[in-house]
Amino acid sequence: MKKVLRVTFLLTSLLVWTGVCRADQWAKVYGEHDADWIYDISETSDGGYIAAGYTLSFGRGVESNAWLMKLSNDGGITWEKTFSGLPYDWMASIEQTSDGGYIMAGYTECFLAKEGDVWVIKLDSAGDIIWQWRYGGDGVTSGVGTDEATSVKETLDGGSIVAGRTNSFNGICSPESTIPGAACILDEECPPADPGGKASCMFDSDAWVLKLDATGDVTWQYSYGGSHFDTARSIQQTFDGGYILSGESWSTVSGISGDSDMMVIKLDAQGYIQWQKTYGDYDSDSACCVQQTPDGGYILAGDTRSFTGISQIWVLKLTSTGAITWQKTYGGTWAFATSLDQTSDGGYIVAGQTHDYGAGFSDIMLLKLDDEGNLVWQRTFGGEDYEWAYSVEETSAGGYIVAGRTWSFGGGMDDALILGLDASGMVPDCPIMGAGGATSLDTSISAEDSSCDMTATNAIRAETFALIDEPFMDTELICPLSGTDSDGDSIPDQLDNCPNTPNPLQEDTFPPAGNSCGDICECEGNFDGDGDVDGTDATTFKSNFGRNQFTNPCESVDPCNGDVDCDGDVDGSDASLFKADFGRNAFNNPCPSCLTIPWCTYL
User: Fold this and answer.
1) What are the pLDDT digits (tens) for 352-375?
2) Which domain holds residue 564?
3) Fewest CB within a 10 Å sphere: which of 141, 301, 386, 448?
């Protein structure tokens, strides 16, 4: 599984750092032939990591499946599972619990969930289900709409707190998505937003918080919002036993544009509002995350367009009552924050993406800040295409673990990218790493009191019956570089667009915009003799092979077409020889004309 970097990218776009690489310093891609994302990752008590997201490559769901991976500290897969209904499931948040197990929350359209419900699963240390429930409207005692979770945390009483948004209670679709006063449009006409983005339609949803006990039973549940779109993106229990909630509000906005503001709500232990604030100005502002700081205040991160008209990362330090201590933006043009963590030195690590600095259209951006918000260092990670970060956390060793997705590497549409970094945010000898170039500017808005309504909701709790599979995703080590250079052209195999044939210039001109397969390799696998390797070659090989899937053994079929090694049968050794002749580690043909042919990937 490999998408490759160009030499010009290596020479001009990135810094190459050298040094001794420890086991917990690495960059790896996880995925197969389709889209596979990780939304959340956290360190576990054994020094490894637990990661959750969704996969289209494995599982029994028609569209996507919740995906869970337990990793060792070097990024190796200890175990992994998919949890499926039938159409569409994902997990947005996970953490290890005090009993050594895990709690994760997300979204499901399965198990009679109508238009989609919050899905929460409690697992033991081996990833086996202890309990699983969905929460949402039932169309009888409450409305039916889209309900999704974006954050879950264990609470001091052994239960959990879940935050997200609900469209099932007291909401109709706003004029932005349908005609005024009309009933909510069908979910398939307006699919739910992924945890890292905004809704594709402007539902009049509310932020939603559910307090669950240790068995998943609902202790209390409330929605918080106004007449427009409001959502929660993070929640954390506070020192006083209450909760701090952050997100985005279109109901109580600042400035003159009527766009969204950052929203922060302080709740007591029973979910009642103690105070609520919005932060923003004339354009869109949104909070991704909030954490309580040791002084009893809060650190808040997100993105803003209010100061330059383009999106920049925005970080604010708040007092215990939501007043602003300091506030700064970071970026050039088009930077977004998606995750935040306090660090052991009293500062902060912020993860997101940038369109300005790095190698491709969009790169992962990491900002290390001191306790006053000053930049200590910044890094970018990426290839010539798209990369995003969704989660960052400081590790017990003083480094950082980062999870997101990539289009530049891997074998599928896009794959999960996970980085194990040292205390300076680096992996030695890592050519996908750049220095960044974001600037920091002070901003000067004031916190505004907001007026979100708090409403008791009556979501049902219904048992789910996930179908569980145990796939084993391909992993690709991006850095540190292995040093292997099979063709001796001074381009490491991990970065070489034709690893078995010398091509130091990495030329790639066919098709016109390039296809990540070096020109010198285009004849490899050219079964139809037309001078390129694309879907028609796959067609020819498939026809000769006589099967729909490349993993099918010959079994009792005799004679067997596709007997590449001429040993009288068709099995894995034939697959290996074909892949070697093709010039790639897997048959995921990158040629554009093949991408639309669903069987061109032989697993």
Assistant:
1) 999 888 777 889 999 999 999 999
2) 496-603
3) 141
